[in-house]
Design a protein that fits this description.
Organism: Pseudoduganella plicata
Modified residues (4-aspartylphosphate): 60
Order of helices and strands: EHEHEHEHEHHHHEEHHEEH
Number of helices: 11
Keywords: Phosphoprotein
Number of domains: 2
Pfam families: Response_reg (PF00072)
Strand content: 15-25%
Domain Response regulatory: 10-126
Largest sheet: 5 strands, parallel
Length: 323
C-alpha cells in the first residue's frame, strides 16, 4: 500500500530537459513527493521555500547559466542536512570528484538511469537525510543541556568566588539582569569541546576574573571619598559607550560587555572593563546601592537604587532557570 502523500519524503530534481524531469517524477511517484526545476535560479527559489523539509536534491550538471555543481554547493552551505546528488551524461568529472571528496556532494549518478537503481539510490539518500536530521536534533539537545550546565556552573562560581559575602551578594541581581539584557548565545561551537577540558579551562578563567575583580574593588575603596554617584562610576567603567541622561538614568549603547563572563568561550579572557563592571557592583553593594538594568531600543538603561536582601538558594535557582 502506498504511503499518504503527506508522509512521503520531499525530493527536488533540477534539469533543463522537460523529458528528464517527467521521467524522474514518474519513476518516484509512489516513493517521494518530487518537485522539479528547469534552472539553477528556479531551484534556488524552491530551496528558499522548502529547504527545511527537503530530503534530497538531485541536479543535472550541464544547464544554461550556472551548472549543477554551483547549485549543490549553494545547498551545501545553506541546507547541510539535505543529501546532494549530481547526475550527468557527460564525462568531464574532475570538478565533481573534487566536490565529492570535499563532502559537498554525496554521490554522482551517471545518465541514463536504470529505474531500479535510481529508486534504490533515492531510498538510500532519504534514509541518510533522516539520519542527519536525527543526529542534528540529538546534538542540539545535547548542546542545549550542556549550555544550561555551563551557565549554571558559571553563575554558581560567580556567586561563590566574587559575591559570597552577605552584603556583596546583593549585586548578583544587577549583574545577571545586565547579562540578560545583553543576551547570551544559545549554543556556541565551543560547547562541543571535551567536558573535562571545558570545566578545567572554565575554572582557571573564573579564578582570573575573581583576582581582577578584587583588585578593582581595592582601587575603588582607595579612591572613595564623598557621596557615591553610581552613574558617574558607571561612566568611568564603560567610557564613551555610556552616557548619562536626564532624571538620573544612564544608557549603555554597547551592552555585549555585560555578558562576557557568561557568554564567552573558556579560553577567552574576560576583559578588564568587564572585571571593573563586576567590581563596581560589588563595591556599590557594600554601600547599600545597586543599579537596576533594563533593556531599551538604544541599549541598556541604568537606574541607581537601594539594595534588597541577599539572594536565597531559591532566588539563585530562579536566576539560573532564566538563562
Amino acid at each position: 500500500m502506498n504511503k499518504p502523500a503527506n508522509a512521503l519524503p520531499l525530493i527536488l530534481y533540477v534539469d533543463d530537459e522537460p523529458g528528464a524531469r517527467k521521467y524522474f517524477q514518474r519513476a518516484l511517484e509512489d516513493q517521494a513527493n518530487v518537485l522539479t526545476a528547469a534552472s539553477v535560479d528556479e531551484a534556488k527559489a524552491l530551496l528558499e521555500r522548502h529547504g527545511d523539509q527537503l530530503s534530497v536534491l538531485v541536479s543535472d550538471q550541464r544547464m544554461p547559466g550556472a551548472n549543477g555543481n554551483a547549485l549543490l554547493f549553494h545547498a551545501w552551505e545553506r541546507y547541510p542536512q539535505t543529501v546532494r546528488i549530481l547526475t550527468t551524461a557527460y564525462s568531464e568529472l574532475a570538478q565533481t570528484v573534487e566536490a565529492i571528496n570535499q563532502g559537498r556532494i554525496h554521490r554522482y549518478l551517471p545518465k541514463p538511469w536504470d529505474i531500479t537503481t535510481l529508486r534504490l539510490e533515492m531510498a538510500q539518500a532519504v534514509d541518510l537525510a533522516l539520519l542527519r536530521r536525527r543526529h542534528d536534533r540529538l546534538l542540539g539537545e545535547k548542546l542545549s543541556l550542556r549550555r544550561r550546565e555551563v551557565l549554571a556552573n558559571r553563575i554558581g562560581t560567580l556567586y561563590a568566588l566574587c559575591l559570597a559575602g552577605a552584603t556583596e551578594s546583593a549585586a548578583l541581581d544587577a549583574y545577571l539582569s545586565g547579562a540578560l539584557c545583553a543576551g547570551v548565545a544559545a549554543a556556541p561551537d565551543w560547547l562541543m569541546e571535551d567536558c573535562a577540558q571545558l570545566a578545567s579551562a572554565d575554572a582557571f578563567r573564573a579564578a582570573a576574573l575573581a583576582r581582577a575583580v578584587r583588585l578593582c574593588v581595592e582601587v575603588l575603596e582607595t579612591g572613595a571619598g564623598g557621596p557615591v554617584d553610581p552613574l558617574a562610576l558607571a561612566a568611568e567603567t564603560f567610557g564613551p559607550t555610556f552616557r548619562r541622561g536626564a532624571e538620573g538614568v544612564g544608557l549603555l549603547a554597547e551592552p555585549a560587555v555585560l555578558a562576557e563572563y557568561l557568554d564567552c568561550a573558556p579560553d577567552t579572557a574576560v576583559s578588564p572593563r568587564h572585571a571593573r563592571w563586576l567590581a563596581l557592583l560589588v563595591w556599590l553593594a557594600r554601600h547599600d546601592l545597586t543599579l537596576r538594568l533594563t533593556a531599551s531600543a538604544d541599549g541598556v538603561q541604568f537606574r541607581p537604587a537601594r539594595t534588597a536582601g541577599p539572594p536565597t538558594r531559591a532566588h539563585l535557582a530562579s536566576w539560573i532557570a532564566r538563562f
